[in-house]
Design goal:
Elements lengths: L1 H15 L12 H6 L4 H8 L8 H14 L4 E2 L4 H4 L11 H25 L5 H26 L8 H4 L10 H18 L12 H15 L10 H17 L26 E5 L14 H5 L3 H4 L10 E2 L1 H9 L4 H7 E2 L4 E2 L9 E2 L7 E2 L23 E5 H13 L8 H13 L10 H11 L6 H11 L1 H9 L5 E6 L8 E6 L16 H6 L18
Helix pairs in contact: 3-7, 4-6, 6-7, 7-9, 9-10, 10-11, 10-16, 11-16, 16-17, 16-18, 19-20
Length: 536
């Protein structure tokens, strides 16, 4: 089985080096025609969708898009994202991310094509589940595209649409319709329990449907969100929280330790995670996050660790300083002056963080290879990347119950909202508002690449409020010194305020110039998509 997966992964990697906007079909046709004949081969065929196609997103774009743009991150080389000054000519993050999402889509399309064509002797439930995996991943690709660029082309046939210079963008409404169609198919055909470690289930799809319906509820709805979508979000979230075998991990910090979340063992909170391998060969199946975000080699125990200038924004630091009771999540997410981490550099007795010019990253920072049982290497930290976990679904459920009401004391909403807070050591509430839930999700998922997409879903139906939140964020520099002897621990911050306003135009990223040159049709007005041509 592993050899089959590796073979397909190598083929995907070989094609991912192409400079084309849409890579040509990423699996050699001759191999595809003799493959997909058994259940094991079909499942091996979908395996690359869980890591290699996500590499360019995870490498730099996840935080640049989700947290820098969202105002959670300060950085010396990703500042263009939170200043809303990203150039269409950016080839370091913008272009690779745009192409990464289309790689996900192209690989999903091609794998579906191969399954439909060659897996005719495989049991129907296996075929349909595999297509469900593909459609789930394709939906994710379009979710990131529409949330970052707005109207983009819907590509469903790699062969006939690939390389077409006249390809046009489709409307935001059409893209959201496709996302929901794909995820509904996945929810109907994926199994309730995974057929392999880290594989998608119907609850993965339902949890993602809850997120997507909650977001789509505001698309073109005006000031009041679409009730049918809010009801759908509630329906799917309720099924997940009541019936999925998943749940919250007891200890928040444990979520982001390698021994509790890697490709040989996902924890119970994971509904969908990118499944990284502890090797770098072939390149692209490895997790490079720690290499870029760990402060230095004192943490990684090697020559990587280039994150000295990356960390919490002043806006977030102000939250943590003002809310010292939220110390469990804070310490598991960012290192403040004086923090001690016994799980990092165990060979040296642990790691003491003593820097004051920034609060560097802790989330997903797992230390040296020795700290992780000898697994991983430089630029290859052995920990998976959450794309959806139960805590988020709990909060989605609470918000879908609240709807557009000003406040709720509904027992179900409070039960799941307070479950997230209780784990964080925060006091429970007896009534909650939209702002309560919105802030809770931000703090719960900081540096997981999520917050920008929360702001975008708010922007869909309340653009003034979304822009006001962004415009009020302090993204300047600061120092943060531990007040020695304080208990609970407190810090003295000194802020140099800087704010960067956003406009309706800069809420969306520019289309990469390189793609506009190759496909000038992208500059044309977006058109509705004809769903009658979409293979089912």
């Amino acid at each position: 089985m592993n050899k089959l997966i590796l073979l397909l992964t190598i083929l995907v990697l070989a094609q991912s080096c192409s400079k084309e906007f849409l890579n040509r079909p990423p699996e050699d046709r001759l191999i595809a025609d003799i493959f997909y004949k058994t259940t094991d081969e079909v499942r091996a065929g979908t395996a690359p969708l869980y890591n290699v196609v996500w590499f360019d997103y995870n490498d730099k774009a996840a935080l640049s898009f989700g947290d820098a743009r969202g105002g959670n991150m300060i950085s010396n080389d990703r500042d263009a994202f939170y200043r809303f000054a990203v150039a269409a000519t950016d080839v370091n993050t913008l272009l690779p991310a745009y192409k990464s999402f289309y790689k996900i889509i192209a690989q999903s399309n091609q794998t579906m094509y191969n399954i439909r064509k060659n897996a005719t002797a495989v049991p129907a439930d296996v075929r349909n589940a595999a297509i469900g995996e593909c459609r789930f991943m394709r939906a994710m690709g379009y979710y990131f595209l529409v949330s970052n660029w707005g109207a983009v082309p819907i590509i469903y046939d790699n062969v006939t649409q690939m390389g077409d210079p006249n390809v046009t963008r489709n409307t935001i409404e059409s893209i959201w319709e496709l996302i929901l169609k794909d995820l509904n198919y996945a929810a109907q055909h994926l199994p309730p329990t995974p057929f392999g470690e880290g594989r998608l289930t119907k609850y993965s799809a339902e949890g993602m449907l809850a997120r997507m319906y909650l977001t789509r509820a505001g698309v073109g709805s005006g000031a009041t969100r679409r009730k049918t979508d809010l009801d759908s979000a509630k329906y799917f979230a309720a099924d997940v929280v009541h019936n999925a075998p998943n749940g919250l991990e007891a200890n928040y910090a444990d979520l982001f330790r390698g021994e509790n979340h890697n490709s040989s063992k996902n924890n119970k909170e994971s509904l969908f995670s990118i499944q990284w391998m502890p090797i770098k060969d072939p390149w692209g199946i490895n997790n490079s996050f720690q290499a870029y975000m760990a402060r230095n080699g004192d943490i990684t125990g090697s020559w990587d660790g280039w994150g000295a200038a990356h960390g919490a924004s002043a806006n977030l630091v102000n939250y943590y300083v003002s809310n010292p009771n939220d110390s469990i999540r804070r310490k598991a997410t960012f290192m403040f002056d004086g923090d001690f981490y016994p799980e990092i550099r165990k060979d040296l007795g642990g790691y003491r963080y003593t820097f004051t010019d920034i609060a560097n990253t802790k989330k997903y920072i797992i230390g040296s290879v020795k700290d992780n049982g000898g697994k991983g290497s430089e630029m290859c930290a052995y920990i998976n990347t959450y794309m959806l976990r139960m805590a988020e679904v709990y909060l989605i459920y609470a918000e879908s119950i609240l709807g557009d009401a000003a406040t709720t004391s509904d027992a179900e909403a409070l039960k799941y909202y307070n479950a997230v807070r209780k784990r964080a050591g925060m006091p429970e509430k007896s009534s909650i508002t939209f702002d309560d839930i919105f802030l809770e999700k931000r703090i719960e998922t900081v540096f997981e690449g999520i917050y920008w997409y929360e702001l975008m879903r708010l922007y869909y139906y309340n653009p003034t409020k979304a822009k006001n939140i962004i415009n009020d964020q302090d993204k300047g520099s600061y120092t943060l010194t531990y007040n020695a002897g304080s208990n609970p621990r407190t810090w003295k911050p000194v802020f140099t305020t800087a704010k960067y306003p956003v406009t309706d135009a800069t809420m969306y990223l520019p289309l990469p110039e390189a793609e506009l040159v190759k496909a000038p049709g992208l500059a044309k007005p977006a058109v509705p998509f004809d769903f009658s041509v979409l293979p089912e």
